[in-house]
């Protein structure tokens, strides 16, 4: 079922890492950076050709410690096959970067291109959301923020016409970003437990994961209550979200209206990160917003390079012993959930 581009070395490597969704975007850059540190990296991708091409490009650049293995995070059999491969080749796993992600929307790309939106307007939309809490608290109605609001409001209204949230795209998004991460982590957990210095697990999240963006107070409180939160509760929240998505009741029931499925997938992913970190205190399990990076997932509206986007996840993959666990990072800085 899974064809691999095998570049065997005779001895077991000091450290072994898996990166999901690594055929492009900054996932590929994460692989390059980790391999440059001397770590044996398994580059995974759902599509064999895309994954093999990406691996070949890294090998051609002079790196020898990268291998490809197929992994569709939505397919339990492919996660099991990856686990068997790592077990037989390396005997354990030290680093897992859960990077694969889906946007949860269907986009008319030609229509979006035709709109020719200034990336500054997209960034200002992000900044506006980020600072709206501060605005309320301190009433800082500076001229700059008013300008940003005007720009962001304009961009937001314009893009609604070319971005559609369907039930199918929402379901796919949650199955990839939340359940996909959980599926792969569970399949690889027995191997991660064998890492004697405490495995590093990095869940690639988003600014959209931040709980202040969730209007529903009850669910916001539940997701923030790390003392009592459970995986079953997370499954229930997702079920409730999908039910409301199907019934067209997102706004009525206080779900986020900007990229709803994507936002919920990353909010629950962050919560899962904390639950997991509590369950495995010997590991270093964190989640990270990589920044607004120029990749396919945002139709190349991002303003940061893939090198910049890889910085946070790579920093967490290379955390020294005694580093943080159960935390959320905005790029390389620790931030509030
Ligand atoms: N770019 C940003 O500004 C930004 C901001 C915040 C968070 N993120 C997060 O960063 C991560 C990487 O995204 P990116 O920006 O690098 O976007 P990207 O270039 O679109 O990469 C997404 C990767 O995920 C893979 N993928 C999707 N579904 C998969 C599945 N079922 N199984 C395995 N792989 C799958 C894609 O594979 P295919 O090539 O086969 O589609 C691709 O390799 C995502 O989790 C995203 O949510 C990105």
Automatic annotation (TrEMBL):
UniProt xrefs under InterPro entries: NAD(P)-bd_dom_sf (IPR036291), SDR_fam (IPR002347)
One Gene Ontology cellular component? membrane
Keyword NADP tagged: yes
The family database entries (Gene3D superfamilies) matched by this protein are listed as:
NAD(P)-binding Rossmann-like Domain (3.40.50.720)
List UniProt keywords, sorted A-Z. NADP, Oxidoreductase
Query: Which superkingdom does the taxonomy of this entry point to?
Result: Eukaryota
What GO molecular function annotations does the UniProt record carry, in alphabetical order?
oxidoreductase activity
Q: Which protein family is named in the record? A: Belongs to the short-chain dehydrogenases/reductases (SDR) family.
Q: What is this protein called?
A: Uncharacterized protein
Q: What's the source species for this entry?
A: Coptis chinensis
Lineage of origin: Eukaryota, Viridiplantae, Streptophyta, Embryophyta, Tracheophyta
């Amino acid at each position: 079922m899974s064809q691999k581009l095998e570049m065997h070395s005779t001895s077991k490597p000091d450290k072994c890492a898996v990166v999901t969704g690594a055929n492009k975007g900054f996932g590929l850059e994460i692989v390059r950076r980790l391999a440059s540190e001397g770590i044996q990296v398994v580059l995974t991708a759902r599509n064999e050709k895309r994954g093999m091409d990406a691996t070949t490009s890294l090998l051609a650049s002079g790196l020898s410690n990268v291998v490809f293995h197929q992994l569709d995070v939505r397919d339990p059999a492919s996660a099991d096959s990856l686990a068997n491969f790592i077990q037989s080749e390396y005997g354990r796993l030290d680093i897992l970067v859960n990077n694969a992600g889906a946007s949860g929307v269907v986009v008319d790309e030609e229509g979006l291109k035709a709109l020719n939106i200034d990336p500054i307007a997209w960034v200002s939309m992000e900044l506006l959301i980020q600072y709206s809490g501060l605005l309320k608290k301190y009433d800082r109605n500076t001229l700059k923020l008013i300008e940003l609001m005007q720009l962001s409001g304009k961009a937001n209204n314009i893009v609604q016409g070319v971005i559609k949230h369907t039930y199918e795209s929402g379901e796919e998004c949650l199955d990839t970003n939340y359940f996909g991460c959980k599926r792969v982590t569970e399949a690889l957990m027995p191997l991660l437990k064998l890492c004697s210095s405490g495995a590093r697990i990095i869940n690639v999240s988003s600014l959209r994961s931040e709980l202040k963006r969730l209007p529903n107070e009850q669910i916001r409180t539940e997701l923030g209550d790390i003392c009592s939160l459970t995986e079953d509760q997370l499954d229930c929240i997702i079920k409730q979200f999908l039910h409301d998505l199907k019934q067209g009741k997102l706004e009525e029931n206080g779900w986020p209206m900007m990229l709803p499925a994507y936002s919920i997938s990353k909010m629950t992913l962050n919560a899962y990160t904390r639950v997991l970190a509590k369950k495995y205190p010997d590991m270093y399990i964190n989640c990270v917003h990589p920044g607004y990076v120029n990749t396919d997932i945002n139709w190349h509206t991002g303003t940061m390079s893939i090198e910049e986007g890889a910085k946070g996840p790579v920093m967490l993959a290379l955390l020294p012993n005694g580093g943080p666990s159960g935390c959320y990072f905005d790029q390389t800085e620790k931030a509030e959930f």
